[in-house]
Amino acid sequence: MTEQSSSPAICNCLALRQAARQVTQFYDRFLGPSGLRATQYSILAKLKRQGPMTINALAADLVMDRTTLGRNILPLQRDGLVAIGRSKTDRRSKELGLTRAGAARFTAAFAAWTRAQASFERTFGAARARDLRHLMHDVTQAV
What we know:
By secondary structure, the chain is mainly alpha-helical. The chain contains 6 helices and 3 strands; from the N terminus they run ααβααββαα. It has a single domain (36-142), classed as Orthogonal Bundle (Arc Repressor Mutant, subunit A).
């Protein structure tokens, strides 16, 4: 392997992971005062939009393995922001739902997320950010 072939400039995985970490840290700085991290905010946002979901469905929607999702759910459950209960359609499955406290925390965090989104788009460019979201969506569908 040549030095050039091991360069991060040619490794798609490394470039995506570095960008993802950088953007996550950027959003985390804005969300910090709300007591949420970007991943936790995403969980609350998904539950707010979709309503109660099974853990498997939520993990699939977030493109996250169940173990990682479980680690992110624990503090949300501990803080009373989400509740786990039996599925209304399948008693063998468990559903995750947003509590009133979770909806309130989401609403408070939404303002911080909006500021992060606007700041990112000012820095990166609104059109480029839109194109990036479309490109990343295509990546999640293709791989």
